């Protein structure tokens, strides 16, 4: 093995932890997208804008999660029922990410 390449090889345990973290982040991202889609289908723009405003004013908290939307998102994405002990952390992270993206859709079209 070339001694100049040694610093670029990672320990297999480190690679495994990186892969586990990446898979978890992907699950959070996909779950947040499903949550956003369900929220936009079920609530008016005014309600979503009010939720965004509350999140901006007070910051995100677990009280801002809607359990029914969480259950439907878990069922749609993972094809299983919501399990409180398994899904609490990923649901919290997904809702936090969804609120950071903004629930209310915004038209970015600019006319010239």
From TrEMBL:
This is Uncharacterized protein. It comes from Shewanella morhuae. It comes from the Bacteria.
